[in-house]
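Lab notebook: predicted structure, single chain.

Context: the supervisor wants predicted structures on file for every construct in the current expression panel, including those that have not yet been purified. This is the next one on the list. No modifications to the sequence; it matches the entry in the shared construct table.
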Amino acid sequence: MNHCPVLQFKSLAEALVTLFGKSVAIQRTDRVAGGDINKSYAVTLNTGDTIFMKANAKEKAASFTAEAAGLFAIAQTGTIKTPKILCAGTDDGEEVGYSFLLMEYINSGEKRSDYWETLARELAAMHQADSAAFCEQGFGFYEDNFIGARPQDNAPAATWVEFFRDKRLAPQFKAADANFSSADRSRVTKLLDHLEDFLIEPKKPSLLHGDLWSGNVMADPDGKAMLIDPAVYVGHAEADLAMTELFGGFPPAFYQAYREANPLESGYESRRDLYNLYQLLNHLNLFGQSYLGPVLSVVGEYVG
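Prediction complete. Output recorded below exactly as produced.
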């Protein structure tokens, strides 16, 4: 089992000394925009290195080790680039404690002319890679992680339908229950009880990024796509592809190249919204009732 070998430290100072030597010092810290969960910084050192640091409350440390495990898993497939993880840890600080994750700092470049096609082919290769090392039984992951700020249960299941029902949709519906009428709850129960009527088992399990929208893809210094901020698990490749279409979508060239590299099974379009129901439910539970309408609309597509 290829668990993530991320270094763990009990202070930021200890981490920096271990990584860069005893004479290391922080010259400047610049806040980096992006993301609404963690604070992000470009940290410039007297060694000439610049590193990327995410920080949050001390009790959020598990989210950083989970992110590191996800990035490591993707890197293990040897198919698509991710930022290099340096270490994670916690720091008691002078006034208040915090957790941190250190990674290589990526100077994002201009996208290459074949940026989207290359991303599609590399994503298809990741989906086709052997996923057995990441899940002992069928579908799931060797540890739980997070989808945004919410926990994500990755306990394994033998079938994709079972996993998606019991570890994805059902927990989100339960958390959102107060938003639903009795009629809504009846439709939800019907959907979950008949999920096998709508989803299919994949020909092979795939390692998924798990939160694959445009904000979690960036260009490296050479203008080639790389993946960040994963919520990985082993599932059906269609779930990743569906997520790319939820918030604006990727350019047509991406989908054409993906289908050429990893042809989709018939009926994908009829399953796409059901995969994205998980993401919409998560947004309902994170951000409130503005997502209730889209959730109920998708439920209605499948059970009336």
